[in-house]
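Standup notes
- DV: blocked on the single-chain target, sequence here:
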Amino acid sequence: MSFNTEFLAPDILTVPERGSPALTAKHSTVSVCSLTAVLCDVREQEIEIEQCRTRELSCERRLTYWRHYERKPHRTVRLAFESTLSVLELHSVSKRFHRGEETITALDSAQLTVRAGELIALLGPSGSGKSTLLHVAGGLETPDEGRVILAGEDITRLNAGQLARSRRRHIGFVFQFFQLLPALTAVENVELPLLLDGERRPRRAAARLLERTGLGGREDRFPGELSGGEMQRVAIARALVANPQLILADEPTGNLDSATGAVIMDMLTEQVRDTGAALVLATHDPSAARRADRALLLRDGALSASAALDA
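- DV (later): unblocked, structure below
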């Protein structure tokens, strides 16, 4: 069952472009407790909760409730609404690599759902497939089997051009080794995603974000003139400049000292909490993992819940 979402305030839910899949009820459901209780806290709404017992509401019902409030949107309500939407879904995703006659299974029927505003720590030993999972989730690698749903769209069915456009508009990548272009200055590296997406005046947004990361006054420096921590801040600014729905971070603190790593994690978690973006973080850092809402362990290609956050 699909329905039109054009009645929603534009800053709450992006209207699907012509030809793109409409939001469907099967993509997301939400309990009365997680949405209507917040609505009741903002404005009175007579919805029976029955001692906070969880009940499933269809996506259509949730949008109906939201329409009732759209004239005076409230940030708390907006984030509560967004938190019920799946930004990323992996359905039975498998990925194998061949080394001579040996077959290496990096992902084995992986299942994962990431909701808006959620921070997920991806744990596992080196070589367990964490980077592969992030690359498949972000459309940098194609799975051998399974489907990858990004913002309601199956990206495994897209051609190269469509896939690149989807990545630019929905995903911010943070790489362990920065991946900055050495011939571009800090601000030019940050504004690059906006330029590629046709933004006419991206410099102001890029400079503002660098200022926020503490690099004001160093925007004209080349990567080779920056420290490791400064280069990672530039890389994070580049990942966030287009306000992505999903941030994929591969060991963003792996090459940094503990103090700089903490600053980098503060920046990422602040983006998640303030904008409702989702963050999937591959890490070996226990302090970074403890910031997560959920921790998942990847071992031998299989994903499972981790007890790391309970420690």
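- Follow-up: The first strand starts at residue 30 and ends at 31.
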